[in-house]
Amino acid sequence: MLAQERFEKILELLRVEQSVTVTELTEKLNISESTIRRDLTALDQQGLLIKVYGGATAVKSVLAREEAVAQKSGKNLKEKQEIAKYAASCILPGDFVYIDAGTTTELMVDFLGKKDITYVTNGISHARKLMNKGSRVFLLGGEIKAVTEAIIGEDALEDLEKYNFTKGFFGTNGVDQMSGFTTPDLKEAAVKRKAAEHCSQIFVLADHSKFDQVSPVKFADLKDAVVITDQLENKKYQKLTTIKEVFS
Fold first, then answer.
1. What is the pTM of this model?
2. CA nearest 58: which of 75, 76, 40?
3. Which residue range forms the structural domain that includes residue 222?
4. What is the pLDDT of residues 45-91, one digit of tens each?
5. Interatomic CA distance for residues 248 and 232, integer angstroms
6. How many domains does the chain have?
């Protein structure tokens, strides 16, 4: 097999799997380990993959731009509704719940009943919808981020210090095997991180489009959360965290 043909096969496997080991490549391409290692070094030098210990990972672009709520709300709506419905079913009477700002977490509110539950949120629209449902809800204080309609900043972080939640439900812009859960904004990531630290159980709501995506700021590791998604394409994530597929 010519070098260029090997390169193309390696990159195609990475496109699908996002990460591969030397052992996997030797078995699938029927090539010696030394040849695979040389190929990975060559592709890494060309910037076509990232060589890591024992294998390689795909090169990912960093998604630094944050879409407005109005732009995001209509995307993958059916999938988000099913994710939100399942997430709402995880809340039990007596829970003390944090709901993060975001379009999918906001859809959760539509499926919540009038249980003996107290909610805290940094989502302005979330708080309004919870209030209209007759729920007991607290809205964090702080700076309003217009693009995501989220409360962020030092005041929000200070507010979170006094709470200990049984469960927290979070949105994310990216889910990646190496980078974890990420979001574009430093201040918003800080609020997510602080809230997650105060939750006994963390749920991240992420439709399939969020996987293998990376935004600039990490707020949690994959192992720290249960991920609720519509359908998982890259099954390697199942080895890294707990996945609930609502369309499986």
1. 0.77
2. 40
3. 69-245
4. 887 888 888 898 887 766 666 665 655 656 789 999 999 999 999 99
5. 8
6. 2
